[in-house]
Design goal:
The chain has helices spanning 14-37, 42-92. The protein is an all-alpha fold and 93 residues long. The protein has one domain. The longest helix is centred in the last third of the chain and has 51 residues, at 42-92. The chain is elongated and about 80 Å long. The mean pLDDT is 87.
């Protein structure tokens, strides 16, 4: 019987985490520099800046939603497996 709720998650290395934070910082800087240097009105620059911020926020929210859905499925499957095993044990007695 495999208990899916206690399986360890793959740990990411510190180097990988540093890389992802650095990658995000570089991308955010490049976006900000591009908007700053854009030959447009201040209103247009503000619109692009708000759109970029919303895009980042939405990406984080979607990532969390997908992760939460997968964790819920894993927990639900573990509960169903435990119920099935209990019923099989009780019917075998």
């Amino acid at each position: 019987m495999s208990d899916q709720t206690t399986k360890p998650r793959a740990q990411r290395s510190n180097a990988y985490e540093l890389f992802t934070y650095l990658q995000f910082a570089i991308a955010a800087f490049m976006m900000a520099a591009g908007i700053y240097n854009l030959q447009a009105t201040l209103t247009a620059k503000g619109y692009y800046a708000m759109a970029a911020i919303m895009l980042v926020s939405t990406a984080v929210t979607i990532t969390n939603s997908v992760r939460d859905r997968e964790e819920t499925k894993r927990l639900h499957n573990a509960i169903e497996e435990a119920r099935t095993n209990r019923l099989l044990r009780e019917s075998g007695d």
